[in-house]
Amino acid sequence: MNRRPLLWFAICYVGGSAAAAGLSSRGVVLATGAAALLALAAVLCRAANWQLAAACAFAVGVAAGHRLWADARNVTELPALLAAAEAEGPRAAFAAEAAGTIMSAPEIDGDRVMFRVAADSIRLAGDGAARVVRERLIVHIRLAEQPEQLTAAAWQRGDRVRLAGELTRPARATNSGGFDYRRYLSSQRIHWLLTVQGTDAVEAAPGPKWTAAALLGRVDSARAYLGGRVDALYPSAQSGYMKGLVLGIREDLDPEQFQQFSRLGLTHILAISGLHVAVFMYALSGLLRFARISRERTLLLLIFAVPFYVLLAGASPSVIRAGLMSVLGLLAARMGKLKDGLHLLAAAALMMLAYDPFIIEDVSFQLSFVVTVGLIVGVQPVRSAMPKWRRGKPLLDLFAVTLVAQLVSFPVSIYYFNQFHLLSMLANFVLVPFISFVVMPLGAAALLLAIPWEQGGKLLAYASHYANDWTFAFVDRLASVESLRTIWATPPLWWVAGWLLLLGILFRVIGRGAQMDYEREIERAENLETTMTMPLGPATGYPFGYEYGKRSRKGLYSLLLLLSALLVYAYQPQILNRQAAVSFIDVGQGDAIHIRTPTGKHILIDGGGTLSFTKPGEEWRKRRDPFEVGRKVLVPLLMKRGVQEIELLVVSHLDSDHIRGLKAVLETIPVRCIWWNGTVKEADDAKELLGLAVSLQIPLYRANAGIRQQLDFATELNVLWPPAIENSQQHVLNQKEQNESSVVLAVKLYQSTFLFSGDINAVTERAVIRNDQHNRMDESEHSPVSIMKVAHHGSRFSTSEEWMAYWRPIGAVASVGATNTYGHPNPEVLAKLAKWRTRIWRTDKDGEVRFRIETTGMSSYKKE
């Protein structure tokens, strides 16, 4: 420890900051005390001197205190409005006028403009005068007409604006494990959204020229200019990709293309990071050497050039980390002092956390530092354990880098993204060097050449067209191998820490063994100089002699065994869990129910859907990546819960609010079979869903009343509606109105019964009752249901008195959107439920509703 004091100080500082971010106040005190005890133990064990131990304990305390202080100051300056918003709920909106400075480049996407404003005054409706505040706002402007896009395009960072709109709170996570937009914005010190209708409600004027925001606005203009040049050099299918690769502009990247790269773990290529900074420095230093600039002046020029490149590349956490390390390394080289990579990384982490303690929660920050530490610590030991081939040395070097990067990034990747493709290493092994040393330099050179000579830039860009086509074809080919894409439940944090710790120990063991091998070879060479014979058996002191080799192999095998055990646990964390679970997922105004059986099989009933209508002539309103509930909400949740295969998908009926989210499910998660109501509908989303199921060769079965299936020892399915078709040869019906043909399904888990009733109304409810009475073999089979899904989201035409009297539900769940305009659930329905003393849960108020079922009974619990 004494050899790397800055590194250990930084580790303790990061630990203190992480503890304060994730623990309660009491937990922070306990963590700080534990750190002090560990520091004392290090002194007693002579692993560290008392000065370093005191510094490390001090680092934990200071970092924790810094984060707690930042949390205490991270509050809105509108506390009365905040209390009113919390009391009113998700619909709360307050008319307001705000004045301030634009703090981010305005993003124009279809009919929406978004940017950040540092507001210095806010006037609420009813207030006589504006309040002086320091409030950061996210501004959303809904454009009324297409020409308003040109008006918004003239705004830039640093401009002064006055806006009239409605203040709302960012949405909370309403599903367990779902994305928490409010917490995400809070980590950026933003507590309010301002929604504005049209540019007429915006007054914009240039602000002061020499503020930080105005200077960054000029950088934005330079990025936009260069982005326009890239658009002119490449076809539309490649321009977004090249802008991300060369300039770090990811807004124009095709969503499908990004998804393909994401599945193979290649999105880091599109994030400006250390590799890009290294290529930039290498190219610039080459030009300076060609111009015969001295070494000292070259280092000085690079020190000033790197920050400019960081700003031009978008200043993401990964590029800031790389830029800081580069500048510190250049300063150290100029002074002839510090040259240790881990010290540079530690200094960069300390500087970034001291400036913004909330950045520790940024995924890019975490991945950047974890992977960089892994490469510095792990590549040399892994490479030293490989063959010493001369001809294949570059390939072995590349293999070692790729292997270490994959091993180190794996736990963080599955923690946040819940997938890992088994061809990811091959993709990175082939594409990272190809893109880094061929495509990216070609793209950068073409861009620079196009500024003075556009035709020359196009000639260079033309060469990279073929490289990009090959890259896309290669990515598409690998990503299409769905059988090698694995889904992982989000592991606990102790698992991530344990994996990284064991990996660090493994690298150390491999490195020590390789060093012993090297020393043995030196000793053997010296012995050969003095004698022509060698004793049989291993010589004393050799690392792979009997005693040392046995201990070394045992340690290595033990580490590999522990890592394998962690791997198995992460892939099947619920393998011994015999609880069943039913989750009514909040997908807004729609249905999506996930059932996990006691043996770990998964059933999904419907998938929600976002309704969208585009009138002729309003195609300009379409977003580049429109919100789709399946891709943005449902699939990520299922993956976080480790749903690797869906045993049964039940499509209650073909209305959009039940099926639009299922397209993303079919494209992402294997589905074994589908039950649906046996009809078709002349709607694009319905035809697309059924066509996709057929193309994926997923069996489709008509769910007829009377069908019973025992899925496992504790799970029984009973279809109650629609009725069976008398003529089995009858063609599938084309049915526009789908509600009354909804699949009504009863699912029994242990001794608890759940009733899922789709969107049927009171007339069909009576038909279901008569049909169920007719099909029952024994009246004793009929008993009250434990939980009933309120039919048709609580419409007043459903949930009749007869329905309630027949099923006598103990509890009921209404899947409704918080801002639905249908008045769901209807007050009459709520009154009926109250009359029958049925407990009601609502996804608009309670968020996701979850139930655990065991042999001893059922319990409900809200999102964690």
UniProtKB/TrEMBL annotation:
GO biological process assignments: establishment of competence for transformation
Membrane topology classification: Multi-pass membrane protein
Record domain Metallo-beta-lactamase: where: 589-792
InterPro entries: ComA-like_MBL, ComEC_N, Competence_ComEC/Rec2, Competence_DNA_uptake, DUF4131, Metallo-B-lactamas, RibonucZ/Hydroxyglut_hydro
Compartmental location: Cell membrane
Chief localisation class: membrane
Purpose of the protein: Counteracts the endogenous Pycsar antiviral defense system. Phosphodiesterase that enables metal-dependent hydrolysis of host cyclic nucleotide Pycsar defense signals such as cCMP and cUMP.
Record's protein name: Competence protein ComEC
Source species: Paenibacillus endophyticus
